[in-house]
Amino acid sequence: MRPVTPLSPTTPASDSRAARALATLAELSAELASARALETSIERILETVGATLGADECALWLHTPSGLRRGWGAGLGTFTEAHIRAGLISVDAVDAPRDLAVVPIVLGNRRLGALALRLVRTLAAEEQLLLTALANILAPELAHAERSRQLEVEVASRTQEIERGRRFTEKIIDSLPLGLYVIDREFRIQSWNRKRETGMQGVSREEAIGRTIFEILHRQPSAMLRREFEDVFSSGRMQEYQMESISSGEARTYRITKIPMRLGDGPVTHVITIGEDVTDWKEAQERFSQAEKLAAIGQLAAGVMHEINNPLATIAACAESLGYRIDDLEKSGVTLAPETHDFLGIIENEVQRCKQIVDGLLDFSRPKQSRKERVNVNEVVERTLFLLKHHVRFKKLTVETELDALIGRVPHANAEQLVQVFMALLLNAMDAMGDRGNVRIVSRRGDRPDAGAIVEVVDQGHGIARSELGKIFEPFYTTKGAGKGTGLGLSICYGIVQEHGGRLEVESVLGEGSTFRVLLPVVES
């Protein structure tokens, strides 16, 4: 800093400068204590100091992580960072302008900045004390402002981090293939994910949030919903159950899970509800259960039927011996009851029927090992129709075929067994429709390798009740009248298709007809 000319403290000039310096300092202190923003106060202070000391430039420079930076200033603004650094070292430094005065602003060991002035005269001691006092007053203010800015930056960064976490969590919830919503104890919706927007009812998030669940899920009885939620709120236990819905146009099964949620250590504050479409899973479980059931029945049948064959053979032999004996008696002139031959005929017919049932069960329990090769499904269908075209009752039906010529070939298949499957399905369609009706046979390509070839037999018969659909592939279960079927046909078909690595499915509406669907794996032609 420029050298200060010593003045006697008792001279009138010295007293005048000291009074003016004190008055200025009081004014600057009042400005800092005002309710104005710190930036505004500093700008006013620099203007006042510059005017009081007759400086061409008065600026406040701040220490920052990237170096000294001019924060606020009044006047020309010609000093550079190099000038300020040189002036902080010594006013006699080579790089320091001769008209530069620098007062460091320090709080403890922290260098906060500097006051820099361009002067046209030498400062008096009182004026130098004014600048030093101002630097001491500004130091805590600047330190506080720096902490505030750091806190603001930290708060802003933390807020952004929280917001990013919130958006990420929402994205996860929205990406779940599940319908999810959350209600509070007032039954008002607090969260509603995108799956709920595109689901059965298609209610938007904006429309759902804040409203009661009874207003949104108005298709479900409100009393039942209230009872389910209150049970979770009161017990704190998770609830899980299944429900069926046809709102989408087809029967779908949903697993509904209600999960208690606590914001603290107290009682349940919210309930999370998750809805998952488990139709495919349920059908797979039913197919697996059906396969296990059929396997168990097959093992049982294999053991029992071998034992039944022996008494059946004995009964047949005895009936045949009785027939010879009756013939001999009649030749010798003995008169027998007229129904004797009828009784023997009934015995022989029933023995044969039992043998057919036994043979069918044995075929079901242990399918015959046969030669496997690549098979064209369309050729199998056409061969089946050729075999049935001479059937008297089948001639009365109208048969439509839609066969995809580009369908792939089934690897490791037996054409004879597949003919047996399609023939059984077509005969069942004939029985379901009586003597008149329309049967469609459709082959098409599937969308998965394990179901690459699909053949459907569609009839317009009486259909099958929903309660019976899960039983029709079980042995001895039949929807036909008494004496019209053994109930083994579909069971055997199921086993054959399963042995080929495929699936046999059915869709039916009572009074409208049925669709039996054979799904088989294929390889490219």
Fill in the keyword field for this structure.
disordered N terminus, 4 domains, 5-stranded antiparallel β-sheet, alpha+beta, Beta-Lactamase, 5-stranded mixed β-sheet, 14 helices, 525 residues
| Quantity of strands, as a count | 16
Q: Which range does the strand content fall in?
A: 15-25%
CATH architecture of the largest domain: 2-Layer Sandwich
Series of H and E elements: HHEEHEEHEEHHHHEEEHHEHEEHEEHHEE
Number of helices: 14
Average pLDDT confidence is 80
DSSP helix fraction? 40-55%
Sequence of strands across the biggest β-sheet: 6-5-9-8-7
- Report the CATH superfamily of the largest domain: Histidine kinase-like ATPase, C-terminal domain
- The CATH topology of the largest domain corresponds to Heat Shock Protein 90
Q: Residue ranges: pLDDT <50 for 5 or more in a row? A: 1-10
CATH class of the largest domain: Alpha Beta
Structure description:
This protein is α+β, with helices and mostly antiparallel strands. The chain has four domains: 12-152, GAF domain (Beta-Lactamase); 177-277, Beta-Lactamase (2-Layer Sandwich); 282-365; 373-520, Heat Shock Protein 90 (2-Layer Sandwich). It is built from 14 helices and 16 strands. Strands 6-5-9-8-7 form a five-stranded antiparallel beta sheet, with helices on both faces. It has a five-stranded mixed beta sheet with strand order 11-13-14-16-15. Strand 1 and strand 2 (67-75) form a beta hairpin. Helix 1 packs antiparallel against helix 2 (38-53), helix 11 (377-388) packs across helix 12 and helix 12 (415-433) runs antiparallel to helix 14 (489-499). The protein starts with 11 loop residues before the first helix and ends in a 5-residue tail after the last strand. Residues 1-10 have low confidence and may be disordered.
